[in-house]
């Protein structure tokens, strides 16, 4: 029995019931593929269902505002995916009359759609014989065939794509591609794979050579940058008795583009109360001397792929009616990074 036949049999017996597997609609397959990049299925599924409920068609997504999209995406991370999602929906509506291209080459022309996503949509929706290569597929192929070429090297990307093409089942490409990804997610898991009951265990090179833990090989290119964030949380008591605060929208091409956050003071190292007070006039135009107190004694370390954000929130109690202030009760209406969302959730009852 061939490698691909084993994968297809395993998939028929073990596949999970997932909402996007009940359709060939390229819009919904595209949504699921974009969401599941760098996101586990269990985390991504509620977001998929939420998006489909709010934007049933690509026309609905294209007609929405970026802020609506970012708010629904809040918590999934890698927000460039959400911005590209919105831009691509507009592109499909405006340039393709609402119809996704039905070929791999055509799909590659869409913003935010690379080799993997184009291969997935082309094979799952249109039965085009294109191999998919994601993290799960890299792992299965590296272990089964005993390949020690780094998966994130130029040579590795090319090698594994060619290998995936050689072993794929062209006649059942839709199920085969979903099957090998599922196999890597469940059977040939990153840690503690189920080798004892694996249908491929007798011919798996890594298992026979005791190299399961060593494969796949990945070059360590990531250099983590430490940043020190001080969020200034104005608390203004309005004339009507309501509490108000201030949010600012992040601009530029850095992290969290177009999301909202409290006014930010970034320092080279952890800042004390005196330093925060020193720079406060540059960030907030206050007409009084505010009461400034830290809201978390220990720094909150928020880890991103290439950055660790060491964060402290500071309460700035003032009587100045700051420009563009908003009612604190409306904070949850804004799309914010999960770091800010967690802060709001923790403190809204006891502090706000």
Automatic annotation (TrEMBL):
Gene3D superfamilies: Helix-hairpin-Helix base-excision DNA repair enzymes (C-terminal) (1.10.1670.10), Hypothetical protein, domain 2 (1.10.340.30), Nucleoside Triphosphate Pyrophosphohydrolase (3.90.79.10). NCBIfam families: mutY. PANTHER family: ADENINE DNA GLYCOSYLASE (PTHR42944). It catalyses: Hydrolyzes free adenine bases from 7,8-dihydro-8-oxoguanine:adenine mismatched double-stranded DNA, leaving an apurinic site. Binds 1 [4Fe-4S] cluster. GO terms for biological process: base-excision repair; mismatch repair. The gene is mutY. Its EC number is 3.2.2.31. This is Adenine DNA glycosylase.
């Amino acid at each position: 029995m061939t490698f691909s036949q084993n994968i297809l049999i395993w998939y028929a017996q073990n596949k999970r019931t997932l909402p996007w597997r009940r359709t060939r609609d390229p819009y919904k397959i595209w949504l699921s593929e974009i969401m599941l990049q760098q996101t586990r299925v269990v985390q991504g599924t509620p977001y998929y269902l939420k998006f489909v409920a709010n934007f049933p068609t690509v026309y609905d997504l294209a007609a929405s505002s970026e802020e609506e999209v970012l708010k629904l995406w809040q918590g999934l991370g890698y927000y460039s995916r959400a911005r590209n999602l919105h831009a691509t929906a507009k592109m499909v509506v405006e340039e393709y009359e609402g119809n996704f291209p039905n070929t791999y080459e055509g799909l590659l022309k869409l913003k935010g759609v690379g080799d993997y996503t184009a291969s997935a949509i082309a094979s799952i929706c249109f039965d085009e014989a294109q191999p998919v290569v994601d993290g799960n597929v890299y792992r299965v192929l590296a272990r089964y065939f005993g390949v020690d070429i780094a998966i994130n090297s130029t040579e590795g990307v090319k090698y594994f794509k060619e290998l995936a093409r050689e072993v794929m089942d062209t006649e059942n490409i839709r199920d085969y591609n979903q099957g090998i990804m599922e196999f890597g997610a469940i059977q040939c898991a990153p840690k503690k794979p189920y080798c004892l009951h694996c249908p491929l265990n007798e011919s798996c090179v890594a298992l026979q050579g005791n190299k399961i833990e060593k494969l796949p090989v990945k070059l360590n290119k990531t250099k983590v940058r430490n940043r020190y964030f001080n969020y200034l949380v104005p608390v203004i008591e309005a004339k009507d008795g309501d509490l108000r605060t201030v949010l600012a929208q992040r601009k530029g091409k850095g992290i969290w583009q177009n999301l909202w956050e409290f006014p930010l003071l970034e320092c080279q190292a952890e800042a004390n109360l005196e330093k925060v007070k020193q720079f406060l006039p540059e960030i907030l135009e206050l007409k009084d001397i505010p009461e400034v107190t830290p809201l978390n004694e220990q720094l909150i370390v928020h880890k991103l792929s290439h950055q660790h954000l060491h964060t402290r929130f500071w309460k700035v109690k003032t009587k100045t009616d700051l420009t563009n202030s908003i009612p604190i009760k409306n904070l949850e209406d804004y799309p914010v990074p999960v770091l800010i969302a967690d802060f709001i959730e923790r403190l809204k009852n006891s502090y706000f």
